Amino acid sequence: METVRTKTGASARTRSVAFVGLTIAIMAVSAWVTVPLGPIPFTLQMFAITFAIVVLSPKEAIAAIAGYLLLGAVGVPVFSGMRGGIGVLAGPTGGFLWGYLLGVAAAALFLYVARTKLGVAGGAGVPKLSRAERAALPAPRRALLFLRSFGVDIVAGVIFTAIAYVCGWVQFMAVAQVDPLAAFLTACAPFIVVDLCKIVAAVICADAVRAVVK
């Protein structure tokens, strides 16, 4: 019995490490998809990171974003425009990157607590329903579970994005030496609607992935 538990634990750790590594790779690839919009480029990072927050456990999500930032800090070209190094983190747009770490931590914690309180899969002590078990539930119950899960995931994405915006706004204002309004209009305002759409898309994709990944 002890041997079975040991093997199960080792398998779970291996699976967790694989998920974290894959997520870091997805974050890097999403950063390379860049559309220049002034000094702040448009990327798919908000989508990828929100997806990771929703799909992974809090520890895995934090480990993934920390690993991503560490790789970029040592010079691996994982940031937007295939850049890397401390200079990017200290530059005008570096605040968004630092904000990713703080935002992921806050959003993952919120998600864990909210799921536990509401009895949504992913919370402490809440069993994960299989697709067959979910289909067997009455329609009103299925709808309630979906709305709870979807709503909580959306709020987590908004928390992450808001924190990243604040950090990015403050650093852009300090490094570029512009006033708060100019910094907000340049670094944040053009992306709000698009990033909200990314959050919704990430949550929808994450829900589909969670349904098949056990």
Automatic annotation (TrEMBL):
It is a multi-pass membrane protein. Keywords: Cell membrane, Membrane, Transmembrane, Transmembrane helix, Transport. Belongs to the BioY family. The chain crosses the membrane at residues 12-33, 39-56, 68-90, 96-114, 150-172, 184-209. This is Biotin transporter. Pfam families: BioY. It is found in: Cell membrane. The keyword Secreted does not apply. It comes from the Bacteria.
